[in-house]
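Could you show me just one protein sequence together with its fold in token form as a worked example?
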Amino acid sequence: MLYPLTFPLFVKLIPFALMLSLIALFIFHQNFKLNRIILFIIVFVLSFVIEVIGVKTGSIFGSYHYGDSLGPKLYDTPLMIGLNWVLLVYLTYSSIERFKISVPLKVIIGASLMLLYDILLEQVAPVLDMWQWEYNRVPLQNYATWFILALLFHVMLAGFNTKTGNRLAPYILACQLSFFAALNIAIK
């Protein structure tokens, strides 16, 4: 992604990288149950609808629009964005569920990991043609909303005592966080 010659190719591969991560997680998921699948479908639908409302009104995250690197769009919102929310909720929830700490603390840590991810991603998203903020400034409202939604989704999963048993999740999360941290350093 750092070389001008290969940059356009790698930007086009972003949806495929997200899908490969989801497929890998699916392969390593240990507790297939209908209610868990339904919960993640709910995360997809809710997050996608919230993103559509956000793009159309600017009142949820702030004023922004999506670029073309996340693939096909519905209502000016890439379908991949719902899958990205599912991926991030799954990665963070699965990564912290194994720790022997209280459920409220797990929820807060999971939502905080998602916020950290968003902070790193927001700095490089415009360069990757994912989305663009009005005036090229990420509003604090975006981070607050991200944390609240992440908290809500983690509370929902914890409330239904969701278990993933996915030993691959922490590694994918660490890879993604490292990738965006490295891009931040390289691009600045």
Summary: The longest helix spans residues 34-57. The chain has one domain: 7-187.
